[in-house]
Model the fold of this input.
Amino acid sequence: MILEFFTSTFATILEMFKNGGIITYIIAIIGIYGLITSLEKIHYLKKISRVSPPQIISNVNDAMERGGSLEALKSIGHYQNPVSKIILEALKIGYRNKTEVEDSMERVFIVEMSNMTKNLSMLRTIIEIAPLLGLIGTVIGIWYTFKAMGVGGNSAALAEGIYIALITTIAGLAVAIILLPIYSYITGLIEQEMDKIELAKKMTNWGYATMKLMVDSDIPCAVEALQDSEGIVNVKEINEPDSNIWVAFKPSMLEKSINNIILEKCNSRAEIIESKLKQ
Done:
C-alpha cells in the first residue's frame, strides 16, 4: 500500500512536469540548486560549531600553564573555526600592540562572516522568485489556453488548460515552502555562531600578561625603555640561560609591541621566549 502511494505520487509528479512546460523545469532546477546549497551550508555551519568557546578557552588556559602563548597557539590551531581563529589572533598580544591585534581579529571576523553568509542572499532570492515564476507560468498558460480555444471553445478544454497552467504555481510554491524553513534554520545557526564569536572576544579580554625576553644588547636601556612605556606594569632583569628580562604588562593598554619598544628606543633586538596571558 505504501509502495503504491509513492508510485502513484511519483507518477503524478512526472505528469505535472510533462504538462507544466519549460517554466516548471526552470523552477525545479533552481529549487534543486537551492536545496543542495542549503545542505552544504548546514554541513559547514555544523562543522565549525562542534567546539564551543569555553572548551577552546579551557585548552588555551591549560596550554598557557604548560608553555605559554606559543603552546596555546599550537593547542587550538587544528580547530580551524571562526572562534578559534579569533582567539588565535588574541593570543598574539605582546608580539603585536593592542590595535594590531584588534584589527587582525576584525579582519578574521569579516572573512569568517563572509564564509558563513556566502550564497545566503542567493537562497533568499530563489525563495522569493520561485512563486513569481510559477505565477508567470500560470498566466502564460491561461493566455495560451484562451488563445487556442477562441470564442467557440468548450468548458472541458478550458478546465484542462487551466489545470496545466496551475502546475507552475504549485511548483513555485512547493520550492518556497521547502526552502523557507531551511533558510530560517541556517540563519539561526549563523546567529548562534555570531554569539559564540562575541563570547570569544569577551573571554580573550586578557587583563594581565607576563613575558620573558632575550635582548641581544644594552639590557639596561631595554629595561628603561619598557619601564617608560604605556601599559607596562613591572620590568626586571633576570639571569636565565635563555632570557634576561622579565616584563609584566596590561594587554589592553599596550600601545606598541614589546619588540618595537626595545627596537625603537635602544636599537636592540628582543626575542620573546615565553608569553603568558591571564584573564
